[in-house]
Amino acid sequence: MCDLAIFTHSLYGGGAERAMVNLIRGFIQRGLSIDLVLLKREGAYLDLLPPEVRVIDLGGGRLWQRLPELANYLRENRPPVMLSTLDDINIAALWMRRLTGVDMRLVANVQNTISQEARRSKSLKVRLMPTLSRWFLNWADAVVPVSEGVGSDLQQIGVREDLIQVIHNPVVTPDLFEQAQAAIEHPWFQSEIPCLMSVGRLEYQKNFPLLLEAFAQVRKSRPLRLMILGEGNDRAALEAQIEQLGIQEDVALPGFVSNPYAYLRQADLFVLSSWFEGLPTVLIEALAVGTPAVATNCPSGPAEILADGKYGALVEMGNVEQLANAIAQTLDNPLPSSVLQTRAAQYSLKHSLDQYTKVLHLAESTCSVYSA
Length: 372
Known about the structure:
6-stranded parallel β-sheet; Glycosyltransferase; disordered C terminus; alpha/beta; Glyco_trans_4-like_N; about 40% helix; Rossmann fold; about 375 residues; glycosyltransferase activity; transferase
């Protein structure tokens, strides 16, 4: 029997998935045995898992189709503790614990502001998630939002305050700094022309059209380039906008890269243009490698990470003029890298592991015999 089961969709390249991989690696180093239960065994981060992890593949397809397999896993393995992450996964885990009667502690991790996501989504499932969360997240033994803003959103939805414990994602790890030193074979990083960087799925949430508009505006007054790492459904629309703005010579969309840290370290400025977030991991990663940052003041996370603008400019969501001005001003007067890195150190793997050890009650059992 494992010490801890972690349940999520897959290990594609998102912030939630990377956070779970970091937690797994940290817990393995502390001597725990881990089962990673995946709706489907796929994704770029599978290669980052330690060999000691047992990966359970439920078979893929829609989540509701794999509930019997999840129930069988719980009955046969009876993990003492489960950490689930992402909204529909949390609901499924809570229901299956109740239906199987398995005696285990269940902690639900929430990565995004559920109400904001529902407000802007065309998906019926996503629009219903605030109601489903109000009904069922209160069945959890604890609910872990990744930021104060996500925690406030959960309370407004109707999740009991006594269940909520904010724990930041484990972002700053020794591996991050090691990978950040990798060489990047791209001519833009051997040029004197400044390069802006953004990272994220090419989806509505990230509002890359705003970034392209602001970039085009700043580019009118100075040489400048922009690279956006990530893949998604909006690629064609973004490519059309790039062409319409006439900036195709100075914008690159390389797709998903397994090591964004080396790119972030080489960039002159990181820009987050999102409509909403939970705790934008990549913003912390940019600070960790010493790269200045500008972000929209979206719910939630950027204001917490940047301390209301102390460690990087915050601009109104959707405001092209403000974002363009902030980009230009930060390029002209960046904060020292050492200041940014000190701020990012608050989001260390050790700090997250210590907090998760307590909320999962691992300190009372297996993990208590291992040093932090």
